[in-house]
Design goal:
heterodimer, B: alpha+beta, Beta-Lactamase, 5-stranded antiparallel β-sheet, about 50% helix, binds adenosine-5'-triphosphate, binds magnesium ion
């Protein structure tokens, strides 16, 4: 059982996108996966996964108003989701010190628990990292993102959490982007994959039915890159060609839009 | 890039072919200034230094069963004793008591020990727990040795 927190410091680098797609990639490899939205103030993991609003959430568990298993929902591809509240009112009175205990309680039922952290290194991010067995940093190839990731790594080490890997997201091959090897040497962590900037990712929200890119278009460059990350996490090589599902799967996707 | 913008860049002296050196320097500064040291265990002094440095704290005092068992430095003992009394009368299960005395002083009980941690900023429970854990995991023997030294000194 691995509990992985995905943190970045800087906002909007793609943590939630990576968690949602990676969770599905791992589930497709036969792993039991739970994704937890630990971004309690700005929750959106369940939205990206195309789920309906959940009546009770992790926020209610932290307030002591609901049980842990009451807030585990079924998501796409047999993944489980523990959403946070989408409302504005629900971030008050939250006892974050309960989070590690909550995660510990559900984790044994899964192979992977993926924690989608908020931006910043506030108490909420520390709570998620303290609940994890390992921390992955998600960065964009820009100095601001790398500086924030470094601060996040330091904050993690200070509370004895374990930063173990790095995912570069939104790599566009533009001038001014910091090269892969420099990012690795600045953050001193092994690289688990480079997910390119891909318009297909943004199409998650284009259609009536919201779907992460890995489901809508498994052949997209970003989807393939996520499979590479999943493979590296599992220590195996995933046959990316197989994940697309061929012509009929493509046809079906086309008409299910 | 078009010919015109190339010309403009040249005229304005903008060089966009290099990575922004200052920005990379800034990242290097962060890693130098804030890097997290290993907790050292060779001597008491080394241990305390690395502990305070790792957690960015000014001092720590530990009590057990109403007696002080270790302190990172002698000059916070008076404050510690005063606040310990207050803590004992306010104490709640699993709760941290914060005092603002210019610096922040946090007191909490964990596994039969009471920790007092002095820091510049107000630390949250995850940060405080990490200090307590580092002391419990790495510091016990070192503190005990130091404690014995003090006790033998007292006897003389
Ligand atoms: N590889 C990518 N290519 C193109 N767009 C992307 C990529 N990854 C993420 N995005 C887009 O970037 C935006 C921010 O992504 P996301 O919400 O996942 O970031 P985040 O780090 O979770 O943000 P926050 O810090 O606010 O939680 C979204 O619109 C998403 O669709
Ligand atoms: Mg997010």
């Amino acid at each position: 059982m691995r509990i992985i927190a995905f943190a970045s410091g800087k906002g909007g680098v793609g943590k939630t996108t990576i968690v949602a797609n990676l969770g599905i990639a791992l589930a497709r490899q036969g792993k039991k996966v739970l994704m937890v939205d630990t971004d309690l103030a700005m929750a959106n993991l369940s939205l990206i996964l195309g789920m309906e609003t959940s009546p009770i959430t992790l926020n209610d568990v932290l307030k002591g108003d609901a049980g842990v298993w009451d807030v585990v929902y079924d998501g796409p591809e047999k993944v489980s989701i523990m959403p946070a509240s989408l409302g504005l009112q629900d971030t008050q009175r939250l006892d974050l010190t309960k989070l590690p205990g909550i995660i510990k309680q559900v984790a044994p039922k899964y192979d992977f628990v993926l924690l989608d952290c908020p931006a910043g290194i506030g108490e909420d991010t520390l709570a998620a990292m303290a609940s994890s067995t390992e921390v992955f940093l998600v960065v964009n190839p820009h100095s601001l993102s790398i500086a924030d990731a470094l601060k996040t790594k330091i904050a993690a080490q200070r509370i004895n959490a374990k930063p173990v890997g790095l995912i570069i997201n939104m790599y566009a091959g533009l001038k001014g982007e910091i090269p892969e090897r420099d990012i690795i040497s600045m953050l001193e962590l092994p690289l688990y994959g480079v997910v390119p900037y891909d318009e297909e990712v943004r199409k998650t929200f284009y259609y009536k039915k919201i779907q992460p890119v890995i489901l809508r278009n498994p052949d997209a460059e970003a989807s393939k890159a996520v499979y590479v990350v999943a493979g590296k996490i599992l220590g195996i090589e995933i046959d990316i060609k197989k994940q697309g599902g061929g012509f009929f799967a493509w046809l079906k996707r086309l008409f299910s839009r | 890039m078009g010919l015109f913008s190339k010309l403009a860049f040249k005229l304005l002296g903008i060089d966009d072919t290099e990575l922004p050196a200052e920005q990379i320097g800034y990242i290097k500064d962060i890693s130098k200034e804030y890097s997290v040291p290993e907790i050292l265990k060779n001597t008491f002094g080394e241990f305390v230094d690395s502990l305070l440095h790792k957690h960015l704290i000014e001092g720590v005092v530990v009590f057990k069963e109403n007696s002080l068992i270790y302190s990172s430095s002698p000059d916070i003992l008076e404050l510690a004793n005063k606040l310990y009394e207050m803590f004992s009368s306010f104490k709640r299960e699993n709760k941290v008591l914060y005092f603002n005395v210019g610096s922040w002083v946090s007191m909490f009980e964990k596994d039969e020990f009471v920790y007092m941690i002095k820091s510049d900023t107000r630390l949250c429970e995850f940060e405080l727990n990490a200090v307590a854990k580092d002391i419990a995991v790495h510091g016990k023997n070192i503190f005990l040795e130091e404690y014995r030294k003090i006790m033998s000194f007292v006897k003389v």
